[in-house]
Design a protein that fits this description.
Strand content: under 5%
Largest sheet: none
Shape: rod-shaped
Structural class: mainly alpha
Oligomer: single chain
Number of strands: 0
Order of helices and strands: HH
């Protein structure tokens, strides 16, 4: 029984080893290159989106500052208007 198992494993391993090569074939290299290019493209898109987000966040912060300044100016005008009416 042990001999049969060993023989079966040896045959199975020999079949598995026949298909294995040390180097990648042409199709695998092409797939690898396509994957690398897709990865670079995705990384570039990610970087572009990060830059766009930073730009939008900067614009938002600037507009919030302007809004706060406008609110302060509105309060000041309302206060002066009340003083003028009294």
């Amino acid at each position: 029984m042990l001999v049969k198992r060993m023989l079966f494993l040896t045959v199975l391993l020999s079949f598995l080893m026949v298909g294995c090569t040390r180097y990648a074939n042409e199709e695998e290299l092409k797939t690898l290159e396509e994957t690398k290019m897709a990865t670079k493209k995705a990384e570039k898109k990610l970087e572009d989106l990060k830059n766009e987000r930073r730009s939008l966040e900067d614009r938002l912060a600037d507009r919030k500052k302007k809004l706060e300044a406008a609110k302060e100016e509105k309060k000041l005008v309302e206060k002066r208007l009340q003083e003028f009416n009294n």
